[in-house]
Amino acid sequence: MIVDPATGASKAVTTRGVDQNAVFQWTPDGRYLAADFWDQEWNVRVLRQDGRTHRTLRNVGIMHGADAFSPSGRQLLTLCLSMEASNFCVWDFTSGKLVKRVNDESRKSTIGWWDDQHLATVVRDDDDNTRAVVTDLNGAITRVLATFSAKANRDWVDLVYTPDL
Q1: What is the DSSP string of 67-85?
Q2: Helix, strand, or coil (residue 150)
Q3: Closest Cα to residue 39, out of 60, 23, 13?
Q4: Which pTM value belongs to this model?
Q5: Alpha carbon of 47 to those of 4, 22, 50, 110: distances in Å?
Q6: What pLDDT, in 10s, does the model give residues 70-88?
């Protein structure tokens, strides 16, 4: 369903072959929708607003949540599905070529992009505390955003941020 918030108009759009659990998100230019789909490998399908395929990024893994695109829109973050230690891959969205495999260093989770060269992630320290940190694309921590005790973490502390506009 595509809804125009200004007019309230909406239209149902049928898509074929997209994973039933796929998260649809607008491409950075606002012209297309992107979603995961399975075709003997995990791909990202870029769809026109009428549901037809515009292009496909093959064997790139699963898009990282609702914020898979970097702030500039030039890169796409996916969960790589391989036996390698690197869990995340950064792709050039225009060419579809791999830019970087990001070593997750056993991160608890990845929140999303911080800027085009950094990710926000959650890590556990030696004292069983949980820290929200910024890492570069090599996995090195460059900044600590917040620290939560093990008890606070069990109580479902949820960290959400909005980029400074």
Answers
A1: G-B-TTSSEEEEE--SSSS
A2: helix
A3: 60
A4: 0.82
A5: 17, 13, 8, 26
A6: 999 999 999 887 656 567 8
